[in-house]
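Journal club prep — side note

Before the paper discussion, L.F. wants everyone to see what a predicted structure for a comparable chain looks like in token form. Sequence:
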Amino acid sequence: MMKHKNLYISRFPLRTGGHGGNRRVLQIHDALVQDAWGVFDIAQMPTDGGPETPSPLFSNDSGLDTRYNYNAYLHGQFNRDFHLSRQIKDLDLNAVLLDDPVFFPHTLHELSRLSIPFGIVLHNMESMARIPKDTQQQFSIFHEEIAAISQSKLCVTISREETWLLENMGINCFYYPYYPTKSLEDWLSAVRSARNQSEKKYIVSLGTAFNPPTYEGMCELATMWDSVNRGKEFLIIAGFGASLIKQIDANFESIYIANNVSEDEMFTILTECKACIIHQHSGAGALTKIPELLLAGVPVIASHHAARSYYDQSSLFMYDTLEDLPTALAAATSAPPPRCSVMRRDEGLRASIARAF
């Protein structure tokens, strides 16, 4: 483990080209590296040898567990957390930032025992990130989550809605919206330039199908595509785990599933698409793909839930139900290329962390 007095401990590896969690960690790393914060991802810890960890996170939904091997993933996460907690006392830390706290019960306990001040980086509130099937279980997760966050010196949020909720509960928050790193922004700008000369051929829907709300939204969109689209447009569904969509009962004659596409393939998809549809009925945090798509000049059509935290983006076209989608799609594809007005707040983040610690 790196020798830093200040350490950001994440669930997600620090790497380019990954999912939204990876991209958010890169953003925070780039903001804090000048202040000598190190980043350590818990994936480097062993996944076995830890105690049984009781948690309301474990799912009773057999479909969810079968599709993602979710409970086995949790056991591995808690084992990594346990092994990490046993090293904390030897690291001589001044301060810690820690991802979504319900995934780090052992480390949180050790930080509190050693009186090491910590802050929370909230990728999303896990109690609100699932498809709601067991309300009582989600309340249990919520109570555990709030109890952990309330012990922190600072909670860094990606979502306006979660900031509002936590601030109203007396928790010190800093709203830090997602914005891509400079290298990714340059890549998105290249897409925008290429779109000026490209032929627009199809509609795309992007997302990580390993995320349950994204999966459910993609499934509904695929199932309803023929009836709402009436054969006018071809749809490409692309992203990590998109092959899961092939397992549903839908007409795939007008839909192509692009699973785990390369960077070059994604460049082509974004260059040639007419617009991107993001469809969700549930989920927490904020979707990193929305500002990225707008920076790339791709019109975004989103359900109201998917559009959370981005209602102020004039280039975002929203709809209430899939029956309203054709109207939103027509408006988006006839509008000028979109612009993104999400502002960088790196200096504000550094100042908030300095005040907290």
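L.F.'s comment for the group: Residues 220 and 279 are 8 Å apart (CA to CA). Keep this in mind when we get to the figures.
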